[in-house]
Amino acid sequence: ELPESWADMQEPLLEGMCFTLKYLGMTLVEKPKGEDMAAAAIRRIVATARVGARKFQKVILTVSPRGISLQDADTKEMVENVSIYRISYCTTDKLQNKVFAYVAQSQESGALECHAFLSPKKKIAQAVTLTVAQAFQMALDLWEATHAGR
Q1: CA dist list (Å): 53 to 24, 107, 113
Q2: Domains and CATH numbers, the chain
Q3: pTM higher than 0.90
């Protein structure tokens, strides 16, 4: 449950805001950003996810000005840590409005990957997207503050 003024809360974001989501999968994309590219990527991920009858991995997605970290909700094992500087786009899908996705450059291959997650409610998917946008802004502010004195 998010407080009404959560958009103004800088403190928890510095520590990291946590969301429990289900990981749907990943697909490679051509472009770093764009609504059409993301929508097509999400369609591919959702279609593939529907075919496989496996249970989705439940993850705790933590958003902070450092980036996004994913940890397995059951084992608490770290799955992935993505620097804010590697993330080029994030969105809540218009049709699949419980789906949050982000595009990031792979640390290993340098390829652009779109990762999609299913949230329990539309509002949560939107909250994750807004939180990532805030994290970008804070990271930029922090970066500008450290480089202002040079």
Answers
A1: 12, 29, 23
A2: 4-142 (2.30.29.30)
A3: no
